[in-house]
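Researcher: Here's the sequence for the chain we discussed earlier.
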Amino acid sequence: MRFEFFLAKRFLAGQRYGVFRLVTTFIAVGGTALGVAALLVTLAVMDGFRTDIQEKILGTQPHIMITSPFDATLPYEPALANALQTVPSVKAQAPYVSAQALLQTDKRVTGILLRGIVPPLETHVTRLNDILSHGDWNQLENKGIILGQELSAAIGAHEGDTLTLVAPQGQGDALSQAPRMRRYKVVGIFHSGMYEYDANLAYISLSAAQELLGIGSHITGYGVMLSDVDKTPEATRAISERLGSGFWVRSWQDMNRPLFSAMKLERTVMFIILTLIILVSSFTIISNLLLLTIEKGREIGILQALGTSPQQIAKIFLINGLMIGGSGVSLGLFLGVLISSLLKHFPIIRLPADVYYIDRLPVKLSGQTIESVALCAFILVLASVLYPAYKASQMDPVQAIRYS
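Model: Thanks. This is the structure I predict for it:
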């Protein structure tokens, strides 16, 4: 056992002013532990909400969408679809049609976002099978329509009902064409978990959407699925370079940037605020070490008189402070992981399902989050012990022996 570590352990264990320093030590350890645990649990819950929202968005949105830069339709080109498959990270692609339309029942008329898809292809770029509550996507080919859960409830439509879709006029003279109207049978209900989609989105087959809108064989764009969602920015740039300026390539991150930017800002602010708890506990560590310096003044003077260097004295108190702070950080990490695991697997905190679409806190605890919290806490603890260690190393041995 090294000399400095041995004395640091003896100084921490042998306390002349017993109860008072014991209490301050427990306060320092407990304060650090609570701060670390609170920070870890908060970040885990916020990451859980972010992941949950991301999964719900990607349930109806592909990773990348390719459209015309002039908000016009595109001719469906199999060669272009095949070219997308050669881009690294691209797993699948599917054409789609998207347009505004009116949905009419016997009692109500409401505006919706209509999306025409090819179900066998679309299931490879979005999680259609996961979000479908009732029905069958393949029934879209039989003049079928699948509604969002909130939209279905708002208009009072159920599986098996017949609805009327009213779309703007097709290509040509707007004055000479009347809006197009077609009747479809409700063949399913989907539930994505995102209110905006569940309340406004409806699916029909691609061919039915082309016929309803009068756009022939044209499409709105292509949806692209990636093998790794974390490589979305790189894949977006690669597709843009491959297709050129005639196409508008947007990722799911671009289309939801305000939402995720706000969540990122909120996470950063919460990280800073909760880090202040650890900072407050670090002041307790400082006061504890300064008190130890006064208490052990005579011993410090004797050590210096025997030839111990100021650097060795500083190391003793540095190790002593790290023992206190390190114990708090370790205990906090353990409590944070334990609480996060309990929240993840047991419904300790209930949420209103009609507001959040989930009934418990979503928790995602990653190794990167644990490492970042541990590193931040350790840096604050290390900074808090530097000054007391420096003051101890600068004590005059004669004055320390005489007056301690």
